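Good morning,

Attaching, inline, the backbone tokens for the sequence recovery test we're adding to the shared suite. The designed sequence is right after.
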């Protein structure tokens, strides 16, 4: 880095072009993403100075006037005159497009930025931009307005001491970013700075939003780097070992850093970064990681006889169950599949990641047999579960001539494969479905959200009925087929995947209508469910009542119970919350009131109920319109209890 002189900087293009067509130079264009990209660029320059080993702190301030200030304690941008251009280096950097030279060479620039055009683009798109450099005991300052120098570089002060650094302040130009009203988003910036703290592993990043009344200085500093990141991503609960693992190395000029933590749960989170830019779709680094990770574990398992004879071999996915992992590579000239940089393409990133991960992970496994054993045993178990699930699905397919689909995508299945211990909630709507998925006990509770009204089977032809997506997903999820749908149709209770099928709809008129439609369907096509007593209706509360200063809500399931409860607590202050729909309850409330087997109330649907209701079904749902209107008119006041 010492041969870094002003002469090395190449000059390619002017800034007018940038102001004319900002979207060509800024990823995210002139919207809120592009607006933040300006800040990202300046921050990245400071981070690069840290990664090059010349600075250890970057400070970010959001100022009252909407501008931002970024300070690093690096070498300070050079202030000398460049012979070729006859301008100061700092001016060249901020006014000439592609002013790169070594500024964006592989050795120096790693954090990505705006395709390396960086600082000059930010300057071009700022109403004003001021740079202050501390070097050699002097403070140098230059000001630009809309990309043009308005106050030439001058020494504006001096200081004692050895410190150096760069301070850049700028205000994005509202003539360019016309629709931006709220300015920088502190939450978004905070998230990026935290991410940078993890990815740099040791750079101190300070953030202060001076636009707010209660100004607070935040410091992001993550000495543990990507391993601390992996731990942060891991779900709360049990882990297979104590401390996150860190695999690091350089190969082929690519720096590879991998952090990981294995939880005993089932999901996986793998984040990939190239030059600190997140790559949503992974790419070559991810491929290299997976190959090496799987190979290291397989080799270890084989060498130590850890997979029993006759057991299925774990796949890569089995080994990844429960993992939280961050893969970060730094390389010169990163190539991405698209402008959005969602996928890394460089082949050398694949070979480098593969060789570093294989070597370092094998070392970890050999030095920590307990860790190796825990990861491999979990994967072996996952492989068995996968195999069992496959066999079960095949059975289901054979039992069900109408359905060649796998389990429906929106089904959140339970872990248990024992039907007598398993329940499925048929839930009205995606939002309630979401709460139910979060609130459930996934070991034995499955959730199938249905979208709005299901088909009225009383009115439709059999062909239509079996094509209906909601109906198909129920058939597929239950796995036992359908009855009464043609000669070769049959319903086989033995294949049923759940012995409690629970209809959970809102406690309102629509909800009861949907419930009626579902019941009609079961009654016509899956009657054994009702005969066997496998069908239930959930009872969500109508109200939550809070007395005095109590924190706990008391749940009430009918109008009458509400009156009784209020009467019993006469004189106390109370607040009543009416739950208009299941979607209004948070996952905990839904669990507590409607799903927890310890506390919930389920109504079992009996065939007598249904036979009695059958009249009603026909009347309400059948193709005959006149009696239907009559019924509704007669029973309008009973709308809440019409099943
Ligand atoms: C080129 C050369 C030198 C420093 C920098 C660029 C530099 C750029 C930025 C941008 C933000 N902060 C920065 N800090 C440093 C070093 C020249 C030398 O001292 O030899």
């Amino acid at each position: 880095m010492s041969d870094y002189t002003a002469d090395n900087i190449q000059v390619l293009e002017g800034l007018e072009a940038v102001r004319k067509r900002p979207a060509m130079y800024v990823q995210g264009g002139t919207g809120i993403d592009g607006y933040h990209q300006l800040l990202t660029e300046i921050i990245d320059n400071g981070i690069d100075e840290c990664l090059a080993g010349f600075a250890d702190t970057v400070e970010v301030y959001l100022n009252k006037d909407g501008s931002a200030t970024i300070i690093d304690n690096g070498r300070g941008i050079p202030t000398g005159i460049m012979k070729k251009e006859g301008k100061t280096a700092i001016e060249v950097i901020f006014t000439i497009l592609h002013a790169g030279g070594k500024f964006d060479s592989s050795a120096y620039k790693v954090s990505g930025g705006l395709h390396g055009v960086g600082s000059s683009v930010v300057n071009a798109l700022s109403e004003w931009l001021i740079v202050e450099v501390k070097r050699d005991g002097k403070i140098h300052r230059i000001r630009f307005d809309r990309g043009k120098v308005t106050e030439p570089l001058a020494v504006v002060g001096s200081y004692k001491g050895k410190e150096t650094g760069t301070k850049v302040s700028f205000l994005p130009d509202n003539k360019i970013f016309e629709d931006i009203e709220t300015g920088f988003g502190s939450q978004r910036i905070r998230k990026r700075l935290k991410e940078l703290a993890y990815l740099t592993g040791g750079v101190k990043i300070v953030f202060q939003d001076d636009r707010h009344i209660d100004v607070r200085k935040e410091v992001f500093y993550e000495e543990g780097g990507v391993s601390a990141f992996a731990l942060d991503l891991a779900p709360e609960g049990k882990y297979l070992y104590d401390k996150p693992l860190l695999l690091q190395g350089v190969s082929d000029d690519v720096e590879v850093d991998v952090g990981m933590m294995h939880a005993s749960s089932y999901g996986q989170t793998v984040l990939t970064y190239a030059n600190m830019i997140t790559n949503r779709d992974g790419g070559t680094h991810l491929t290299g990681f997976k190959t090496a990770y799987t190979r290291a574990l397989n080799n270890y398992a084989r060498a130590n006889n850890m997979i029993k004879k006759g057991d299925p071999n774990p796949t890569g996915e089995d080994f990844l169950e429960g993992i939280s992992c961050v893969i970060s590579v730094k390389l010169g000239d990163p190539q991405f599949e698209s402008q959005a940089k969602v996928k890394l393409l460089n082949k050398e990133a694949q070979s480098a990641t593969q060789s570093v991960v294989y070597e370092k992970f094998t070392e970890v496994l050999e030095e920590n047999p307990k860790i190796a054993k825990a990861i491999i045993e979990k994967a072996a178990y996952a492989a068995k579960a996968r195999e069992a699930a496959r066999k079960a699905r095949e059975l289901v397919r054979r039992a069900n001539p109408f359905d060649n689909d796998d389990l429906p995508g929106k089904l959140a299945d339970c872990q248990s494969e024992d039907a007598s211990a398993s329940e499925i909630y048929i839930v009205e709507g995606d939002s309630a479905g979401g709460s139910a998925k979060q609130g459930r006990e996934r070991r034995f509770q499955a959730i199938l959200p249905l979208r709005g009204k299901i088909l009225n089977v009383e009115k439709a032809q059999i062909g239509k009925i079996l094509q209906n997506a909601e109906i198909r997903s129920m058939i597929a999820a239950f796995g036992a087929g359908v009855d009464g749908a043609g000669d070769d149709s049959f319903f086989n209770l033995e294949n049923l995947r759940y012995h409690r099928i629970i209809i959970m709809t809102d406690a309102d008129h629509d909800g009861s209508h949907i419930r009626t439609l579902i019941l009609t369907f079961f009654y016509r096509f899956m009657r054994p469910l009702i005969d066997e007593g496998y069908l239930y209706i959930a009872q969500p509360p109508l109200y939550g009542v809070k007395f005095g200063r109590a924190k706990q809500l008391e749940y009430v399931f009918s109008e009458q119970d509400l009156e009784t409860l209020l009467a019993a607590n006469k004189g106390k202050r109370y607040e009543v919350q009416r739950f208009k729909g299941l979607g209004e309850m948070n996952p905990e409330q839904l669990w507590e009131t409607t799903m927890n087997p310890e506390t919930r109330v389920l109504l079992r649907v009996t065939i007598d109920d249904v036979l009695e209701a059958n009249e009603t079904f026909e009347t309400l749902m059948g193709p005959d319109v006149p009696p239907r209107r009559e019924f509704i008119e007669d029973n309008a006041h009973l709308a809440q209890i019409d099943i």
